[in-house]
Hints:
EC number: 5.3.1.30
Keywords: Isomerase
Strand order of the largest sheet: 1-23-20-25-15-14-13
Family: Belongs to the isomerase IolB family.
CATH architecture: Sandwich
Function: Involved in the isomerization of 5-deoxy-glucuronate (5DG) to 5-dehydro-2-deoxy-D-gluconate (DKG or 2-deoxy-5-keto-D-gluconate).
Number of domains: 1
Pathway: Polyol metabolism; myo-inositol degradation into acetyl-CoA; acetyl-CoA from myo-inositol: step 4/7
Radius of gyration: 18 Å
Oligomer: single chain
Structural class: mainly beta
CATH superfamily: Jelly Rolls
Amino acid sequence: MASHLQRKPLNERRGEVRIVQEVLKRDSRLKYVEFRLIELEPGAAYEETLEGDECCIVALTGRITVAEGEHVFENIGTRESVFERKPTDSVFVSGGKSIAVTGVTKARAALCYSPSLEPLPTKLIRADEVGTEQRGKYQNRRTVHNILPDSDPTASSLLVVEVYTEGGNFSSYPPHKHDRDNLPQESFLEETYYHEIDPGQGFLFQRVYTDDRSLDETMAVEHGDVVIVPAGYHPVGVPDGYTSYYLNVMAGPKRIWKFHNDPDHEWILNRP
């Protein structure tokens, strides 16, 4: 039986689109973050009015056109697989606006939501504007694509990043958390992880746990799963021979990513 923090793909058809994943506030422990992954055939369209949430539409694979009012961003997207390991295009849209996402080719788009705290301009985030960085050392190495980091004022509450972790490495490690509104030491941010694995028959492990162990779950995560992190530490371990990709969506009362390492494991950072 899957954990209440782990969601298997839905693959549910709604009109012209297929809903691959969906995490909503009403059916999860989350108050700030929602996530939806849609699959589009050429010419198929997904439409939505955002109301109280802002949204980052990530052209995960294939090519899409995103329209919001007078803004039309045509034929965006850069890759056929996330494992091409290059950044992709995204579109940010503030709350109160209506969006239409149309498939140019067969495509998947990730819709990342959080509360819209102020009206902001609709913006195309081009792939060549996405910062790439390497984090970690030893068996704690990963590559990060910063689509909407906290240093970028495009959004009012939303944070979005992509992470690649090679087999035999841990990610989100040493275990860290961001579940207390205690700045400047730590910020409160909920989080979702959308996972893909190459080759696709692989699996990885993700643990979500709090200091008092009132939350302590370890999940065998497969290709296409989503893991929900309402609180606690949340490391990811990738077996040898497989590569992990995940898309993170984060949001909370303040748009600041300030994490706290598990003190039992922070010593790992100080190895020579």
